[in-house]
Amino acid sequence: MKSILLAATVLSATVLTAFASPALAETTDSVLISDTIRPEAITVLATGSALSVDKAGQPVTVVTAADLDRVQGLDITRALALVPGLSLSRNGGPGAFTGVRLRGSDSEQVLVLVDGLRVEDVSGPSGGFDFGTLTPGGIDRIDVLRGSNSVVWGSAAIGGVIAVSSADLNGVRASAEAGSHGSYAGDAAAGIKQERYALTLSAGLAGTDGVSSAASGTEGDGFRQWRVGGKGRYALTDTLSLVATGRYADTHTDIDGYPAPTYTFGDTPEYQITRQFSGRAGVQYRDGGLTVDAGYAHAQTARDYYDPTYGSDVQYGYRGYSERADLSAHVPLPQNLSLNVGADSEWTRFQSTYDARQRARLTSGHALLTWDNGTALLAAGARVDDHSRFGTNWTFGANGSVAVAQGLRLRASYGEGFKAPTLYQLFSDYGNGALVPERSRSYDAGIEWASSNGLVHATTTLFRRDTRNQIGYVSCFSVSNALCNDGRYGFYDNVGKARAQGVEAELTVKPVETVKAAVVYTYLEATNRTPGAATFGKDLARRPHHSLTTTLDWTTPLRDLALGADVTVRSASYDNAANTVRLQPGVLLALRASLPVAKGVEVYGRVENLLDQNRPTAAGYGTWGRAAFGGLRVRY
Q1: For the chain, what percentages of helix, strand and coil (3-state, to nearest 5) are there?
Q2: CA 605 to chain centre
């Protein structure tokens, strides 16, 4: 804790030094441009309805379409590195399984939404979403809320919420690129947007020959994906509209295994095919400040595994399905008050080659009361969830922010989170019907300063999260339990506690219109707090203590040629709970350039991992070395 306080003191001093700059004395509200609030300055993650990001009591970072274009490429994790408190681990090169963590959480404890739909893999052992199956094509923005917020978002929102939104266009957007390791990506989207209706359709194709998933291997493990998507709106009246959205992705990922005769991790011809579909249809009512949204959503994931060594048939597979009916409303009240309420019911089911079909239902309701007088905002709420397998669960939360001076705002929050046991954990051959939800309590406090002229934006946030009832796999060879009487090798149980605490900081400086520099830093202590465990007090696996991302962009006078550099630094961490396998620290340097060649047309290129460092985020897996790419982007 002393190291956290020291880091916070240094960072706060840096931020306050920036505040004292005389060049920043005259400012106005940073989210206003010509009296219009920028779309990227609005988020729904804090309350469930539109709220200015700078007013939110919980920290929210927005990665915009411009950020995605600037960073370039088919690997979305390079853009996610712009978010403080976010870390990831990947089992190989681009396209391989990629888990994203927030503030040291498990990757399965982060709720992921795509166009408002929950996209976790219901058939997965721990649920969660594989970011290896998500490419940036067609994406307009990514909102990231850090900290538990199950009051609004329900199950899985322990570490936070990541909301991915596709583009809503009035025109055409397309890009194509190619580069090292046989990599290619092509995306196109077209849309029309009128006052009464709007429709956008998109499609994309991406792939790479990749690198060996196994660090000891020599053959490349490739990745191929095609996807289609769309979203639309039609106004029945001035206040009532029909809305719909959908996405389908088909992903082929080569993987390695444990071939005979040594049965050690190495090259194999195995591969995985993942098919994902998500869609929602609903209605929206807008009348002044009153808003009502209702809809029905369906999502499904199919994962099949093949090993050509034994033939062309599927070796084994998993199927997960979810259906969800939801209703939410924002109701303005007198005396600067407003009420956000919601209710939903979700039906999930899964089956696999080895597991019979199983089902569960989760019905929920929540209310969040907000007071906002323009200077200060306070919000508090509660949620109740009734699960067909484990019963009733209550969640509470509160947060607030206050402007204490021009451009200077303080914020603080308390949030609770929970994650329902997955169907696999409850009903598979390793299942345990007595499981209860994982629970968390999250606290943070921060200071933010921004200048309206765009010169400086700085934030510092202290955070802590305590998680209990964490679900883990227990070997029947290590314990005596009645569940082992049927001859199984192990079972899932609520056996873990964990604590994550640290400090996040962001500093963006734009001294002139053509130059922008940004620094994002996280200090994290994530440790096992399970009483009596041999790993008590040890670091949680794959959580580096220090993470730093620095970006620099310059638009030159030479025909608006844009040059940029990204440096991502992470400290050493451990790959296992016992802290005996060390992951080396790493520095990733990327150089970028883009050049407009005609109206709405630009060429671009980049070099990734310029220092050619081999620094895997998961022990035993391969990594992508130095690589170069070039492409063309069109906007009309």
Answers
A1: 10, 55, 35
A2: 26
Q: Please state whether beta strands 358-372 and 337-352 pair in parallel, antiparallel, or not at all (unpaired).
A: antiparallel
pLDDT value, residue 263: 87
The 10 Å Cβ neighbour count of residue 411 is 22
- Where in 529-626 does DSSP place strands (E)? 546-555, 562-570, 573-574, 582-583, 586-598, 601-608
Q: Is-contact 139 169, C-beta < 8 A?
A: no
Please list the ranges in the chain whose pLDDT falls under 50: 1-37
Q: Give me the residue label for tokens 């009596």.
A: 532
Tell me, yes or no, if the pTM score tops 0.90: yes
Structural Rg of the chain based on CA atoms = 24
CA distance 216 to 528: 31
* 418 within 8 A of 63, measured Cβ to Cβ: no
How many angstroms separate the CA atoms of 185 and 167, rounded?
A: 18
Query: Residue 421: which of 325, 491, 317 has the closest Cα?
Result: 491
| DSSP code, position 636 | -
Cis peptide bond N-terminal to 261, omega within 30: yes
Q: Is 102 exposed, middle or buried (0-12, 13-18, 19+ CB in 10 A)?
A: buried
* Size of the chain, expressed as the number of residues it contains: 636
CB 162 within 8 A of CB 100: yes
pLDDT of residue 74: 84
Structural domain boundaries enclosing 77: 2-635
Q: What is the pLDDT of residues 566-602, one digit of tens each?
A: 999 999 999 999 999 999 999 999 999 999 999 999 9
Residue 586 bridge partners (DSSP): 570
Q: Which residues make Cβ contacts (< 8 Å) with residue 568, sequence separation at least 6?
A: 81, 547, 548, 549, 586, 587, 588
Exposure string (b/e) for 221-241, b if CB count within 10 Å is 16 or more? Answer: bbbbbebebbbbbebeeeeeb
Within 10 Å of residue 143's Cβ, how many Cβ atoms?
A: 22
Q: How far apart are CA 305 and CA 222, in angstroms?
A: 15
- Tell me the pLDDT tens digit for each residue of 341-374: 999 999 999 999 988 999 999 999 999 999 999 9
> How much is the pLDDT for 262?
86
Return the pLDDT at 39.
60
**519 with 18: CB under 8 angstroms?**
no
Q: How many CB atoms lie within 10 A of CB 479?
A: 13
Structure confidence at residue 238 (pLDDT): 94
Which candidate, 230, 259, 228, 261, places its Cα nearest to that of 243? 230
Query: Which CATH number belongs to the domain containing residue 351 in this structure?
Result: 2.40.170.20
Domain count, the chain: 1
Task: Please report where in the chains the tokens 């978010």 appear, as a residue.
Answer: 83
Task: Tell me how far apart the alpha carbons of residues 81 and 68 are, in angstroms, rounded to a whole number.
Answer: 11
Residues 6+ apart with CB under 8 A from 581: 574, 575, 619
pLDDT given at position 40: 66
pLDDT of residue 299: 95
